[in-house]
Amino acid sequence: GAGVSQTPSNKVTEKGKYVELRCDPISGHTALYWYRQSLGQGPEFLIYFQGTGAADDSGLPNDRFFAVRPEGSVSTLKIQRTERGDSAVYLCASSLSIRAADTQYFGPGTRLTVL
Amino acid sequence: AQKITQTQPGMFVQEKEAVTLDCTYDTSDPSYGLFWYKQPSSGEMIFLIYQGSYDQQNATEGRYSLNFQKARKSANLVISASQLGDSAMYFCAMREGGNQFYFGTGTSLTVIP
């Protein structure tokens, strides 16, 4: 079946602009996660959803970052007033539920470059 | 305290040999899951293997096995018969029930022909 998809695959923007990154999880997966990965680092947790609600948004670095999942499927990560430090690969993952045993499956990521 | 610690930034292994990638974890939750992911230079994160905290036996998936030592809180990945395609970053991760995943900093594995 189809895996996790993310669009766009690459996004180049200017400092101060607004961007939206989209994630389409595996069908039937109720949990959805966003991570940020900088070069040479492991994925850094941002936020995760169980259904439509954000179960844990403690990883969002500041109020310029926001994510939604209005219908419990597709999610959008929104970044306002982008800064050069926001440049990274943004990874999305989904899992069947939030049980400890449930594996996360990752999308290919969106590479964001802020000039 | 770090939830996941990977102390080997880089490892080298001869083709066809076995290699062990270290991972230690920190949790007080009796129910947790341990995962290993592979990230080649293409950037995709590929799930390799899972070990549950209540599992009595070490997990195995083909050439991958997980050396789970619960008392030591370690979950080392063993790759047998290394292949050139195994060259990649490897990340250890842990999930406590109902919570986020925690990732280590990764180990870069290079397989030498």
What would you note in describing this structure?
The complex is a heterodimer of chains A (115) and B (113). By secondary structure, chain A is mostly beta strands. Helix content of chain A is 0%, strand content 48%. Chain A is built from no helices and 11 strands. In chain A, strands 2, 4, 5, 6, 9, 10 and 11 form a 7-stranded mixed sheet that branches. Chain A is globular and about 40 Å long. The model of chain A has no long low-confidence stretch (mean pLDDT 93). With 113 residues, chain B is mostly beta strands. Helix content of chain B is 0%, strand content 52%. Chain B has no helices and 12 strands. The relative contact order of chain B is 0.34.
Query: What string, H for helix and E for strand, traces the elements of chain A in order?
Result: EEEEEEEEEEE
Number of strands of chain B: 12
State the shape of chain A.
globular
Secondary-structure content class of chain B: mainly beta
Greatest interface (CB-CB under 8 A), with counts per chain:
A-B, 25 and 27 residues
Count of β-strands of chain A: 11
Structural class of chain A, please? mainly beta
Please state the CA-atom Rg of chain A, rounded to the nearest Å.
Answer: 13 Å
H/E series of chain B: EEEEEEEEEEEE
Major sheet summary line of chain A:
7 strands, mixed
Average residue-wise pLDDT of chain A: 93
**Main beta sheet strand tally, sense and closure of chain B:** 6 strands, mixed
Distance between the termini of chain B: 38 Å
Low-confidence stretches of chain B: none
Report the total helices of chain B: 0
| Helix share bin of chain A | under 10%
Ends distance of chain A:
37 Å
Beta-strand level of the residues of chain B, as a percent range?
A: over 45%
Mean of the pLDDT scores of chain B? Answer: 94
